[in-house]
Write a structure and sequence with these properties.
0% strand, 84% helix
Length: 117
């Protein structure tokens, strides 16, 4: 009985994670510049991967596998935003500019303030 519920919940989490991962892939293909693509990949990709790992934890019915999956979720949620931030900052400093539809450029004003001081 409990195994059947865990399988159904795990299947639902797996499908939801796959949908988030698909949305991340569509965002990477369709969005106009590096920064918006990176945003789609880091946000939706981390959520999708995390949900898939949680589905593995539920379906496995093994404490060791579930613990590894939960540690994997924590690792993904901690490292994905940091790496996306570092890559975006490095590409900005290297000279890759945002799409012309971008309205604000907070990093430009911050870098100008630091260089003028």
């Amino acid at each position: 009985m409990i195994g059947d519920i865990a399988l159904c919940l795990g299947g639902g989490l797996l499908i939801l994670g796959a949908i988030f991962t698909l949305l991340a892939a569509i965002g990477v293909v369709r969005l106009p510049d590096l920064y918006t693509r990176m945003h789609a990949a880091s946000k939706a990709g981390a959520v999708g991967g995390g949900l898939i790992l949680l589905a593995v934890a539920m379906v496995s019915m093994d404490a060791a596998v579930a613990l590894r999956a939960i540690i994997g979720v924590i690792f993904v949620l901690l490292t994905t935003p940091v790496s996306a931030h570092l890559l975006a900052r490095a590409s900005y400093i290297a000279g890759y500019h945002a799409h012309e539809s971008t309205l604000r450029d907070d990093l430009k004003t911050r870098l100008e303030q630091n260089s003028g001081a």
